[in-house]
Amino acid sequence: MEVHPGVFTSDTDAEDWEPLAEVPGSEFHALVESDGYEAGMWRIPGEGSMTFRWSAPARDTFVVLEGKARIEIDDGPTLDVKPGSMVSLPADVEATWHVTLPYKDIYVIG
């Protein structure tokens, strides 16, 4: 919610999370979506693991809050991330994600 021009605030109540079509079973809570920039939280609830492909349309920077992931970047390195890991990927990087659930991160795309 924009509470003042350019000032955004939000609470992450359960009903405020929306499904993310590109990664079935995952959901996000956007804080701000403006001028090609997006920030919020993303999560995959549940137990076990899942694998999917992901490519962000702009630079994707995130901090892992919960869970683990192995991110295999096409023609690049493999990243092993866990709570506290900070990552920044350039736009359109194709990667295969192997995620241990539940998973949650805070992201900025743009």
Output the keywords:
two-stranded antiparallel ribbon; 110 residues; Jelly Rolls; mainly beta; 7-stranded antiparallel β-sheet; globular
Walk me through what this model shows.
Strands 3, 4, 5, 6, 7, 8 and 9 form a 7-stranded antiparallel β-sheet that branches. A two-stranded antiparallel ribbon has the order 1-2. It has strands at 2-4, 7-8, 18-19, 27-34, 37-54, 60-73, 78-81, 86-89, 95-109. It has a single domain, classed as Jelly Rolls (Sandwich), CATH 2.60.120. Helix content is 0%, strand content 64%. The chain has 110 residues and is mostly beta strands.
Short description:
The chain is an all-beta fold and 110 residues long.
In whole angstroms, the N-to-C terminal distance is 19 Å
Number of helices: 0
Overall geometric form? globular
Radius of gyration: 14 Å
CATH class: Mainly Beta
**What's the CATH architecture?**
Sandwich
- The chain-level structural class is mainly beta
Q: What name does CATH use for the topology?
A: Jelly Rolls
How many separate domains make up the residues?
1
How much of the sequence lies in strands comes to: over 45%
Largest beta-sheet characterization: 7 strands, antiparallel
- The residue-averaged pLDDT reads 93
Low-confidence stretches: none
Work out the helicity level: under 10%
CATH H-level superfamily? Jelly Rolls
The total of beta strands comes to 9
What is the N-to-C succession of helices and strands?
Answer: EEEEEEEEE
